[in-house]
C-alpha cells in the first residue's frame, strides 16, 4: 500500500472510531432523555391526578423529547462528521500532526493529481504511527457511554413493566397506553 492509501485508510479508521463514540454517546443521551422526561412527566401528571387530556399531551412531549435527543445527540453530530472535521478533531488532540492531516483530508478528494500529496501522506504517516485510533477515542469512553445507555434504558424498561408505585404505573400509562390493573388515577376513572 502506498503512503497515500495508507493515510486514507488511517483517516477512515479514525472516522469510524469517532462515529462509534458519537453513536453510543447519542444513544446514551437519548436513553437518559427518555428516562428523565418519563419521570418528570409522571410526577407532573400524578400531581394533577392524571387528567386524560394531559396524558395525551404528556405522550407528545415525551416523544418530542426523544426526537430532539436523537436529532441533536445522534443525527446532527453524525451528519457533521466529515473527513475534514475528523482530521481537525484529531489534530486538536494531537498537535504534532501540524495540520498535515487536515491538509490531506482537504486535498485527497481533488480531481487534479497533486504531486505533493504522496510526500505529505508519507510525512503524516510517520506521525500517525505514534497515534493509534484507540488513543484518539479510548475504549473506556465508548464503554462508559454504552453503559450509561444500557443503564438508563434498563431502568426505563423496568419502570414501565415492573416499577413500583405511582412512578411505575405512570410510566406504564405513558409508554403502554393503558393503565396497569388496579391503577385508577383520579382522572382515569371511567
N→C terminal distance: 73 Å
Radius of gyration over C-alpha positions, nearest whole angstrom: 24 Å
**Rounded average pLDDT:** 91
Structural class, please? mainly alpha
The ordered H/E elements are: HHHHHHHH
* Tally of separate helices: 8
Low-confidence stretches: none
Beta-strand level of the residues, as a percent range?
Answer: under 5%
User: Which outline best applies?
Assistant: elongated
Number of strands: 0
Biggest β-sheet description: none
- Helix fraction? over 70%
Structure, described:
The structure is a single chain. The relative contact order is 0.18. The chain has 190 residues and is mostly helical. 77% of the residues lie in helices and 0% in strands. It has helices spanning 3-47, 52-80, 83-93, 100-107, 116-128, 133-136, 139-162, 165-176. The protein is elongated.
List the helices and strands and how they pair.
Blueprint: H1 3-47, H2 52-80, H3 83-93, H4 100-107, H5 116-128, H6 133-136, H7 139-162, H8 165-176
Q: TL;DR?
A:
The chain has 190 residues and is mainly alpha-helical. It has helices spanning 3-47, 52-80, 83-93, 100-107, 116-128, 133-136, 139-162, 165-176.
Amino acid at each position: 500500500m502506498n503512503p497515500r492509501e495508507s493515510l486514507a485508510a488511517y483517516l477512515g479508521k479514525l472516522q469510524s472510531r469517532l462515529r462509534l463514540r458519537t453513536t453510543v454517546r447519542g444513544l446514551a443521551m437519548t436513553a437518559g432523555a427518555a428516562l428523565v422526561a418519563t419521570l418528570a412527566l409522571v410526577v407532573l401528571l400524578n400531581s394533577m391526578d392524571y387528567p386524560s387530556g394531559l396524558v395525551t399531551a404528556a405522550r407528545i412531549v415525551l416523544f418530542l423529547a426523544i426526537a430532539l435527543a436523537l436529532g441533536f445527540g445522534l443525527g446532527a453530530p453524525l451528519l457533521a462528521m466529515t473527513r475534514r472535521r475528523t482530521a481537525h478533531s484529531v489534530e486538536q488532540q494531537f498537535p504534532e500532526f501540524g495540520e498535515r492531516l487536515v491538509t490531506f483530508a482537504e486535498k485527497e478528494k481533488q480531481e487534479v493529481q497533486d504531486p505533493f500529496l504522496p510526500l505529505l501522506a508519507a510525512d503524516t504517516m510517520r506521525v500517525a504511527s505514534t497515534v493509534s485510533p484507540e488513543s484518539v477515542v479510548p475504549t473506556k469512553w465508548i464503554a462508559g457511554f454504552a453503559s450509561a445507555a444500557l443503564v438508563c434504558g434498563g431502568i426505563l424498561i423496568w419502570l414501565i413493566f415492573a416499577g413500583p408505585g405511582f412512578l411505575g404505573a405512570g410510566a406504564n400509562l405513558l409508554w403502554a397506553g393503558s393503565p396497569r390493573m388496579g391503577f385508577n388515577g383520579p382522572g382515569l376513572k371511567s
